[in-house]
Amino acid sequence: MTSSPQPLTSASLALPGVRHAFFTRQGGVSTGLYASLNTGTGSADDQTLVAENLARVAAHMGAPADRLVTLFQTHSAICHTVTAPTADRPEGDALVTAVPGIVLGVRTADCAPVLFADAEAGVVGAAHAGWRGAVGGVLEATLAAMTASGARMERTVAVIGPTIAQTSYEVGQELADAVAEAAPAGVDTAAFFTPSANAGRLMFDLPAFVAARLGAAGVGTVDDMACDTYGDEERFYSYRRRTHRGEAGQGSLIATISLEA
Q1: Is the N-terminal amide bond of 149 cis, ω within 30° of 0?
Q2: Most buried residue, 36, 152, 160, 177, by most Cβ within 10 Å?
């Protein structure tokens, strides 16, 4: 593993006054199953090491550790608008701010991390969107909070970071039914499912579903980085990969965004 974080960035979010990063698992101090940049404060990892990893994340974003705001994530549609740094981790799955110098962070390990920005309005957001969150409306809740802070959808950029790919994501019919039931008008959810090699099972394209919901909401630019967390073990943690192997735990990735102070 590298000695310092080596996050991914998107050209779509290379905007004036905006800083962002999709951190990989590389560049931290955790070991074993959690090697190396584990940011999971709820994991069984040594929390002293997790704190150091988070400090490295904040430093890469040009901020002290106490300016990094994260959540107690529950696959909900709850979005918080952040007006001041806080050490608390409020329950929810999305964050929005218009305050320069505050770093928003969401954790994932197969779900879709989505970073948002309207650079002209000076508003940024971050959402954790697994299938439950996406179906439940976490993306739309984030956009509503951004709009309330002055953003406009046609100017907003949304980037989907490292996420489990369709080729790795086998699901049951009940998930397909839930996705179809909650789909926005005009979104054909059948396009996000292909038959699995296993009878009665389907392969789900989570990032495509997330992108479709963002498009239906009127987001001006939607970009998918097309990085598969399950298939790329060197760079990413994966909850499903860990489950398939019967391993005792795995780390969490983090995606961050901020307005430059």
Answers
A1: no
A2: 160
* 196 burial type by CB count under 10 A (0-12 exposed, 13-18 middle, 19+ buried): middle
pLDDT in single tens digits along all 261 residues of the chain:
457 999 999 999 999 999 999 999 999 999 999 999 999 999 999 999 999 999 999 999 999 999 999 999 999 999 999 999 998 999 999 999 999 999 999 999 999 999 999 999 999 999 999 999 999 999 999 999 999 999 999 999 999 999 999 999 999 999 999 999 999 888 999 999 999 999 999 999 999 999 999 999 999 999 999 999 999 999 999 999 999 999 999 999 999 999 998
83 contacts 103 by C-beta, under 8 angstroms: no
CA distance 118 to 199: 44
Domain spans of the chain, in order of start: 11-249
Q: Which CATH topology does 11-249 take? A: CNF1/YfiH-like putative cysteine hydrolases (3.60.140)
Could you tell me the maximum CA-CA distance found in the chain, to the nearest angstrom? Answer: 54
Rounded (to 5) percent helix, strand, coil in the chain: 30, 25, 45
Query: 125: which 2 tokens?
Result: 């957001």
